[in-house]
Amino acid sequence: MRFIHAADIHLDSPLTGLSAYAGAPVETLRIATRDAFVNTKAWAEAQQKSDTIQASLTTETDRHRQLKSKSERLQRVRRLAPHLIGITP
């Protein structure tokens, strides 16, 4: 069996320390992190080198962002669901 292991995915709080650097493209990179997770499925299908995808997600501890983050994560996981072995929060 061949699989992709996507580990330590910070969908809820990608690159939070990046805002400390003046001129850093903060939003662009935060969106890129989420897009990369979504694109994992498409890449795996196109390459046909993977039987399944295993993802390990890191959850947000900030209560103000928690609902939005969980909703976004759920949408992405649903897209990948047919290809996942398991999800480790």
Description:
The protein has 89 residues and is an alpha/beta fold. It has one domain (3-88). Helix content is 45%, strand content 20%. It is built from two helices and three strands, in the order E-H-E-H-E. It has helices at residues 26-47, 63-80, and strands at 3-9, 52-57, 84-88. Strands 1-2-3 form a three-stranded parallel beta sheet, with helices on one face. Helix 1 packs parallel to helix 2 (63-80). The chain is elongated, with a radius of gyration of 14 Å. The two termini are 23 Å apart.
Q: Based on helices, strands and strand pairing, what is the structural class?
A: alpha/beta
Helix content: 40-55%
> Kindly, what is the distance between the CA atoms of the first and last residues, rounded to a whole number of angstroms?
23 Å
Q: SSE order, as H and E?
A: EHEHE
| Rg calc | 14 Å
**How many DSSP E strands?**
3
Number of helices: 2
Biggest sheet strand order reads 1-2-3
Quaternary structure of the protein: single chain
How would you summarize what this structure contains?
It contains 2 helices and 3 strands; from the N terminus they run βαβαβ. By secondary structure, it is α/β, with parallel strands linked by helices. It has a 3-stranded parallel sheet with strand order 1-2-3, covered by helices on one side.
Can you give keywords for this protein?
89 residues; alpha/beta; three-stranded parallel sheet
Task: Describe the protein's topology.
Layout: E1 3-9, H1 26-47, E2 52-57, H2 63-80, E3 84-88
Parallel strand pairs: 1-2, 2-3
Helix pairs in contact: 1-2
Organism: Candidatus Methylumidiphilus alinenensis
Protein name: DNA repair exonuclease
